[in-house]
Amino acid sequence: MNLSRRTRYVLSAVAIYVVLVLVWRFSGIGWWLALGAGVVATPLVMWMTWLRRRFNERAVEFGRRHRLFAWPEDRRR
Fold first, then answer.
1. What Rg, from alpha-carbon coordinates, does the chain have?
2. Which of 7, 36, 54, 76 is least buried, going by the fewest C-beta atoms within 10 A?
3. Which run of H or of E encompasses 47?
4. Interior CA angle at 44 toward 33 and 39, to 5°?
5. What is the overall mean pLDDT for the chain?
């Protein structure tokens, strides 16, 4: 399936929301609280995922720019 980026984003948000709500609902809290917590937690999960991807990209870029300097433990004595 060749889905657009926006469609994948929406589908992943819905999947995260459903999983969070079901986990919280069957862990003992009520439906309304689980639904509300899902509304709050889903954007946080997606933001943390974006943040992790961004940090990884920047770390790779940093590694490319500073490849000339070896780490102390990588240097030969």
1. 20
2. 76
3. helix 31-65
4. 30
5. 85
